[in-house]
Design brief:
Layout lengths: L1 E4 L3 E4 L5 H17 L2 H18 L1 E2 L10 E3 L6 H7 L9
Parallel strand pairs: 1-4
Antiparallel strand pairs: 1-2, 2-3
Helix pairs in contact: 1-2
Length: about 90
């Protein structure tokens, strides 16, 4: 699965890692709903770090369709809220 991190590029992540990523996504959603800015920052960073750690970066000139689009690490709570579906950033 191809994941785009806004402002960084694309990463290929095996679908077997979705459980780990969904756990972080669920935590992020809870923190956003509670208005927990420090928790939101920490968990967003952890989610993006996990994608970088578990995935393989695609070359800068590659342009593949992205299954997921994640916000940049400096995104605000409001910017991320606009990106959310009922399932969070990561469906499932």
């Amino acid at each position: 699965m191809i994941v785009r991190i806004m402002g960084e590029g694309q990463v290929k992540v095996a679908e077997s890692h979705l459980t780990e990523l969904n756990k972080l996504d669920d935590e992020l959603l809870e923190e956003m709903e509670a208005g927990d800015e420090p928790g939101f920052r920490r968990t967003l960073g952890a989610l993006l770090d996990a994608v970088r750690r578990l995935g393989e970066p695609l070359p800068d000139d590659a342009l593949e369709p992205s299954a997921l689009i994640l916000p940049a690490e400096d995104a605000t709570l409001d910017e991320v809220r606009e990106m959310l579906s009922d399932d969070g950033l990561i469906p499932g």
